[in-house]
Amino acid sequence: MSEIFIINFGTTLGKKSERLVIKEQGKVVREIPFRDITCLTIASRGVSFSSDVVLECIQHGIQINFLTPSGKPYAKVTSPQLSGTVITRREQILAYNDGRGLALALAFVDGKLRNQVNVLKYFGKYRRASDPALYQELASRIAAIEEIKKELEGISGGTVDEARGSIFSIEGRAAQAYWEGVGLLLGQKIEFAGRERRGAEDPVNSALNYGYGILYSQVWGAVMLAGLEPFAGFLHTDRPGKPSLVLDLTEEFRACTVDRTVIGMILRGATLAQEEGSLTEETRRELARRVLERLDGEENYEGKKYRLRSIIQRQARRVATFLRGEGKYRPFIAGW
């Protein structure tokens, strides 16, 4: 099964029998059966396709995602039948004002911090012997995050609205230690002043934002397939057009999926080329390839090996199960 990622300007997508036909500059570059496609992502301007392609995708359960050149999702095409069970959405709305909403918010941040620690451990283990000074610096950041994370255990009772300030304070202080650790890792390869979310133009933040855009699309699809309401989150506040639950669930996958991929690329000597403040098409193509490769990588989950993209889907279903009172929710923690 494949995810099709379209990044070249002027690409044309067509349907031939049961296959998706991809043409660039009028020439066929790939044909793939629709039954072998999991997701179609359009990440370029000037891409054209017919309603026949849309219909075939929907009939095969293929979601179509649209990303801006910087990786920001701006549209999605899915079947109108992807509403799941009504009871899931009813319980999701009710959970905002009871202990379930707070429990989920705490779990998302707990998973985020533990995966940030594991990313630093993952890269740190290769430097224990080769660069003991750097290893000790990373170890101090790991210890700081783990100490800060303990404060999550002191938050209980009430609603997520009452605890959000404390949760974000914990997340913010842990993030400072984490990004300092990332900066230490990247220091000899590329300039990285720290994490910037909006409007970032430096290569590292641009690459992270582009990767997060791909991850958002994956999580968004998983949330919808699980019958959840993407805009009714818990940790992130409500705002028109803001997919709060997608952002919530993405938190536990950012570090282990995107950060690890981008850091690994840079440490292995990859160049994050830019033109006029934006990543070049070639860099975006390579980033997308590596993030999708990471999503196809396997991790331990419930005693078995699963692809990371499958784990995202299972975690979304876990959220739904928890909201319906049919099971517990535990964040996914990647290995290191």
Q: Let me know the number of strands.
A: 12
The spatial strand order of the largest sheet comes to 1-5-7-8
Mean pLDDT: 92
- Biggest pleated-sheet summary: 4 strands, mixed
One letter per element, helices H and strands E, the order comes to EEEEEEHEEHHHHHHEEHEEH
How many helices does DSSP assign? 9
Q: Could you tell me how far the N terminus lies from the C terminus, measured between alpha carbons in angstroms?
A: 26 Å
Give the DSSP E fraction (strand runs of 2 or more residues).
Answer: 15-25%
Please tell me how large the radius of gyration is: 20 Å
Helix content: 40-55%
Please give the oligomerization state of what you see: single chain
Write the layout of secondary structure elements.
Blueprint: E1 2-6, E2 12-16, E3 19-24, E4 27-33, E5 37-42, E6 48-49, H1 51-59, E7 63-67, E8 73-77, H2 86-95, H3 99-124, H4 132-149, H5 160-186, H6 203-225, H7 244-267, E9 274-275, E10 278-279, H8 281-295, E11 298-301, E12 304-307, H9 308-323
Helix pairs in contact: 3-4, 3-5, 3-7, 4-5, 6-7, 6-8, 6-9, 7-8
